[in-house]
């Protein structure tokens, strides 16, 4: 099993960090392929809790080489502070590899992110304010700054000047902000250059060679399928491709080398930021999911919007990612409900619809059609095998599996590494 992708099947925060960390000890490389420090991945190891934003969750497994691929956008200040935070806690980060082709988030990208959101007012996306969208926009506009540019001062200066030429006009004339000095940006970026240099590598070559040598490579997605810029709830999305294809473009590894695609799926649904969310709850059940599930953003500290499980979305994730398996997380959070509603289809303008509508307006009008499944009250956090689960919890998992279109190969029953029921090995 040389290469597998692990990604979010909903709107992010499904528990990708925990799932990656669980496999980390058995894989040789864990690779981030898109996004940046908009991600917030929580990993609980024993009594230690880690919040990772930019670094791959595999960094916590000493055997594993963590890699930041070309598709990631990297804020060098955040990278260095995340590394030193881990070093202070005794984590060895020296094996990290960083693609020289990854694009850099600079202070002007975070400024543009924040002023654009303010300008949009009630139409805002609710971004994390980390400069993600503006950095990807510059990449596509061919005015981005790459990690490798840090090692040629004259090129770096030319590129920063070119990027700011236009942006400063907008900042000053449209947003009424002070222009940003290219020289100050270059100076700041150069302070990071030497510190980052030991990690910079031709990651595409290294990863392809590793796969050819039979090493196990795990691609870890940030965000989730419905936040994908092509396949998500556009424009309420992030600016990259968390879906499976992103693992190829974001690392330079071809699709024929990837054997398995695992969708991380929460037993209910959450979303942060603006945008449609058919099963969202505004009542005491939503509040209970938020409280019991600890649904508060790791990156921004915002409360997550909460709702029941949506099988239409799970089926869609199976389709657009070619999922081979699901990892169902946070089943323990649903303990205590007498009945658990599950959205099996939508009603749109009086018609029942089984698949996610491609029209944004239809999706905004979608009303969930619920089926009620019987709940359970027993504590499931100590369950080690599927048969340890109460019958109704087993039936809930089986029903979700049937509706979602791929086997559920693992179940999370708590935040810790060991609080997992493994049904089929991901690595066989
Ligand atoms: P990510 O962004 O997909 O990595 O997910 P987050 O870390 O943002 O949010 C998931 C939260 O759920 C974290 O606090 C995890 O520690 C926690 N978590 C993960 N799996 C489980 C589980 O099976 N049960 C419970 N109770 N918590 C879990
Ligand atoms: P992980 O990896 C949940 C959301 C933001 C906003 C939209 C665009 O922890 O699952 P951006 O800053 O990316 O331009 O914001 O995407 N968003 C996330 N929501 N989990 C995440 O990451 C997210 N990363 C971005 O809230 O709605
Ligand atoms: Mg998260």
UniProtKB/TrEMBL annotation:
This is Adenylosuccinate synthetase. It is found in: Cytoplasm. Belongs to the adenylosuccinate synthetase family. Its main location: cytoplasm. Binds 1 Mg(2+) ion per subunit. Homodimer. Keywords: Cytoplasm, GTP-binding, Ligase, Magnesium, Metal-binding, Nucleotide-binding, Purine biosynthesis. It comes from Streptomyces stramineus. IMP binds at residues 13-16, 38-41, 128, 142, 223, 238, 302. SUPFAM superfamilies: P-loop containing nucleoside triphosphate hydrolases. The active site is at 13 (proton acceptor), 41 (proton donor), 139. GTP binds at residues 12-18, 40-42, 304, 330-332, 412-414. Plays an important role in the de novo pathway of purine nucleotide biosynthesis. Catalyzes the first committed step in the biosynthesis of AMP from IMP. It catalyses: IMP + L-aspartate + GTP = N(6)-(1,2-dicarboxyethyl)-AMP + GDP + phosphate + 2 H(+). Pathway: Purine metabolism; AMP biosynthesis via de novo pathway; AMP from IMP: step 1/2. Its cofactor is Mg(2+). Its EC number is 6.3.4.4. Substrate binds at residues 298-304. Mg(2+) binds at residues 13, 40.
